[in-house]
Design brief:
The structure holds 2 protein chains of 2 kinds. Chain A is α+β, with helices and mostly antiparallel strands. In chain A, 26% of the residues lie in helices and 31% in strands. In chain A, the strands form 2 sheets. Chain A has a 5-stranded antiparallel β-sheet with strand order 4-3-2-1-5. A 4-stranded antiparallel β-sheet of chain A has the order 6-7-8-9, covered by helices on one side. By secondary structure, chain B is of the alpha+beta class. Chain B is 32% helix and 31% strand. Chain B has 2 helices and 5 strands; from the N terminus they run ααβββββ. In chain B, strands 4-3-2-1-5 form a 5-stranded antiparallel β-sheet. The chains are: A alpha+beta, B alpha+beta. At the A-B interface, α1, β2 and β4 of A face α1, α2 and β5 of B. Chain A: This is Gem-associated protein 6.
């Protein structure tokens, strides 16, 4: 077990959004912006934006990582660019009113189904074990209980009010 | 006439070498050992571990999304001993120990379906 895999999630977190040089097995080097470090396998996901507009993703497996060196800190712009990379299309196209409408409609629908909902800022907390983030679609539900998750997701899916 | 007795087969116990569970010497347990302690302690509700769990869930979510984005993409795998193969990515197991791929192009031919062991890889890359 190498040193890199022994790190804690907070330590890996500090590498995210920075440009790094990863030295892997057999002195192979990879360079790129850190999108994430998988906390299970310690694999580093590196992203390189090419001039052609394409994006090159390289993942170095955690067990092969020998050294990671930070070259450059990424600013908020890079942070935004990276986090929008693999995320679902999100709510970029929706206005504040539309989001509010979606949230209210979902809350009313869940209450109609006798499911307790509490609003916490932009997030809807369902029965204290599940949260729904904007834009309040089935893919925006998160919970550690997969049974509740799938029940609520199908409820969200079946909301009769067109969103 | 005697009625035949059904053969009762018990499932493999957790100590079987091919088991997927609890045997401390099983590959799965070994691979997950580093992640077990933290999760158990966080479940106990220690406040300093909340932060760790938050960082862990953020990192993990991003990684899972990157795997989702890889589905059906052409991926180049760099394995040990300077072996390079290319294949269409299908799926990964939760522990990132195996990848399921299709049309694996190896030096001796194309394999329609294959499982790649992640411990055999150094890195993989793809273009989006």
């Amino acid at each position: 077990m190498n040193e890199w895999r022994e790190k804690k999630p907070q330590e890996w977190r500090r590498y995210v959004n920075n440009e790094v040089k990863v030295t892997a097995h057999e002195k192979q080097e990879c360079q790129g912006w850190v999108f994430t470090v998988d906390p299970v396998s310690a694999s580093v996901v590196l992203v390189n934006f090419q001039d052609t507009g394409r994006t090159c993703v390289t993942v170095v497996m955690g067990h092969a990582v020998e050294a990671v060196e930070i070259l450059k800190e990424g600013g908020p712009e890079m942070e935004e660019r990276l986090s929008s990379l693999f995320m679902p299309t999100g709510h970029h196209g929706l206005t504040k009113q539309e989001l509010q409408h979606r949230k209210d409609s979902l809350r009313v629908w869940l209450e109609k189904n006798r499911i307790p909902v509490v609003e916490e800022g932009e997030t809807l907390r369902v029965a204290g074990v599940l949260s729904v983030d904007p834009p309040y679609g089935p893919q925006d539900c998160s919970s550690s209980n997969e049974i509740i998750l799938s029940r609520v997701q199908s409820l969200v899916q079946n909301n009769p009010v067109k969103m | 006439m005697k009625t035949p007795v059904p053969v009762l087969r018990l499932p493999r116990g957790p100590d079987h070498p091919d088991s997927r569970g609890f045997d401390p010497s099983s590959p799965r347990f070994q691979a997950l050992r580093s992640t077990r302690g933290g999760a158990a302690a966080a479940a106990a509700g220690l406040p300093e571990l909340r932060e760790e769990q938050q960082a862990r869930s953020l990192l993990r979510q991003r990684y899972l999304r990157s795997l989702l984005a890889m589905r059906d993409a052409q991926v180049r795998f760099r394995m040990y001993e300077r072996v390079h193969v290319e294949a269409r990515f299908g799926a990964s197991d939760i522990d990132v120990l195996n990848f399921q791929v299709s049309d694996l192009q190896t030096p001796i031919g194309v394999q329609k379906e294959a499982l790649l062991r992640c411990p055999d890889m150094i890195s993989y890359s793809l273009e989006l």
